[in-house]
Amino acid sequence: MIWEQNSRLIVMLTEYMENGVEKCFEYLPPSEVSDNKRCFGDFQVVLKKREQRDKYAISSLQLVHLGTRTWREVTHLWYFWPAKGVPEDYDSVIDFISEMRSYMKISQTAKEYDEEGVEVIYGEDTKSSLDNLSKLRSEGRASGRGPHVYSPARAEEMMRANGTRQGNFRNMKTAHEQDGVRPCVCVCASGAGRAAAAVALETCARALAAGAVDVPRVVRRLRSQRPHALANRHHYIFIYKVLSEYGNKLMGSGVDNI
């Protein structure tokens, strides 16, 4: 999914294990020195750098597509959310949301590289070609377009012509077709609690800066896309409290203006 949607930012809000229960598969390499690689099918995750903050960590990853031997830079933000309840340190949450927003902007211009470190340039649009890049590499060389110029539009045409995954492909809309951005992937255990709270916070924080925040409206929109999002009242109250603190820092006003 990360490769298909060309996402360059993962926001994680859960531990692998909480109270003896597995909440998330351990997909991140634990060390950037001695054990920095994990393989999953056609993909390899390489940890290049990790910065530790008080309440969260920032990791720089390489996501390698082993079939096409191309790789992308992906940023992983991991907030150490408590197993029960919500974070009490609102300042760290505000800092984390700010980091999240900053990396979301950076991710829109992140590049893709081949195995030799040469930038991959998409010939006709910015949408991920999903697969068949090796065929396009050969085709590009034959046509004189160069080994590092790929055309996602031609990849789709080839797949449809060959009948490859046509049923799935016809119904699939990537993020680029929908809104022209590379999506941020926000992860917790269910996707309806912590992840929804983080998405709502980031959305409302942007609106608060513009003086137009509406928490119930944002929550309704989230629930229309993810049923039962923010059903936990503690998460809902948490959003108001963090926004109030953010408002105090931003403009000297708090919950009365939300």
Distance between the termini: 35 Å
Tally of contiguous helical segments: 8
Query: Main beta sheet: strand number and arrangement?
Result: 7 strands, mixed
Q: How helical, in percent, are the residues?
A: 25-40%
* Category by helix and strand content: alpha/beta
Overall mean pLDDT stands at 79
Encode the helix/strand succession as letters: EEEEEEEHEEHEHHHEHHH
Tell me the fraction of residues in β-strands, as a range: 15-25%
* Uncertain stretches of 5 or more adjacent residues: 124-132, 144-156, 164-179
The rough form would be described as globular
Summarize the structure.
This protein is α/β, with parallel strands linked by helices. It is built from eight helices and eleven strands.
Name some characteristics of this structure.
single chain, alpha/beta, 8 helices, 21% strand
Task: Report on this structure.
This protein is α/β, with parallel strands linked by helices. Helix content is 38%, strand content 21%. The protein contains eight helices and eleven strands. It has helices at 90-107, 133-143, 152-162, 166-171, 175-179, 194-209, 215-225, 233-251; strands at residues 9-12, 17-18, 21-22, 37-40, 43-52, 56-65, 70-79, 112-114, 121-122, 149-150, 184-187. The strands form three sheets. Strands 1, 4, 5, 6, 7, 8 and 11 form a seven-stranded mixed sheet that branches. Helix 2 links the parallel strand 9 and strand 10. The longest helix has 19 residues, at 233-251. It is globular and about 50 Å long. The chain starts with 8 loop residues before the first strand and ends in a 7-residue tail after the last helix.
